[in-house]
Write a structure and sequence with these properties.
Elements (H helix, E strand, L loop, with lengths): L11 H5 L2 E2 L2 E2 L24 E2 L9 E2 L16 E4 L7 H8 L5 E4 L3 H7 L9 E4 L7 H11 L2 H8 L3 H15 L1 H16 L4 E4 L6 H12 L4 H9 L1 H18 L10 H4 L3 H15 L2 H8 L4 H11 L2
Parallel strand pairs: 5-8, 6-7, 6-8
Antiparallel strand pairs: 1-2, 3-4, 4-5
Length: 308
Amino acid sequence: MHAPQADITAPSRRRVLGVTLGVATAAALVPAGAAVAHDRPASAAPPIRQIPLQGAVNVRDLGGYRARYGGRVRYGYVYRADALGKLTDADVSALAGLWLRRSVDFRVPFEVQMDGADRLPPAAAAVARPISDGGMSAELIAAIGSKDPVRQEALLGGDRAAAMMRKVYRTFASDAAARAAFAQTLRDVARGDGPVLFHCTAGKDRTGWLAYVLLGVLGVSSRVAVADYLASNGFRAEADARTRAGLKQAGMMENPDLLIPVQEVRAEYLAAGLDQVRADFGSLERYVSLGLGLDRRDVALLRARLLD
């Protein structure tokens, strides 16, 4: 993901066009110092435990789910999140209370440039482990920066935006670099000396995929793991709507609803990735063992560490 070729002048580029891996980041539209609303959505029933922060809206503990290999996934061991570059001082203090030892960032340098480096408590080691979308974000930002509704419709209209997302999800299975990043993060969780957090920009695609895979390894039912994946829509709804409104107000998009398919998570996106898993490896279990290279010891450590 690289900077678009379109002529986007400051301050609109940084303030309005925070669009990375198919999501317009809410922080790019919020004036400095303004709080970001992040009320827990009504659809997010227990055991989802949100970490309430002002500068990020999709930070959650992956604990609480019942698993067939043990009682439940332990709280306080692994967290999923969206970008942490807009955290307030109070947010950083709240993260310090989680005793994080490592925060793994799946964003590419362009995303970090747009949204800012993570703000973390001193005890949490920042680990950059970028996973690319193959240029989709740059293409999207260039189309928005053009302010051309015809160009934007040509890129995103009909099923085209959703097709872009399905393509990205298939790379989570097919791309060796993506698999290596996911694999090392799971090893960090299994072998680490404290809680681990992993995140991308919106905390929904790269992060949602790895959370789904991890819950599967732990024996959480697919139905429940899909529900955790889809819960991002509730947590992100207000911020994403504000992004669309900001793009409309700024004159960047005549029809910002074209972005909805790339702002949302959808079961069809996850299914596209899982279809690629079956095509390349035969099953999710073989994706973990052959695609990610996790051996029996890694899996046993994950289950011993995360299941009560």
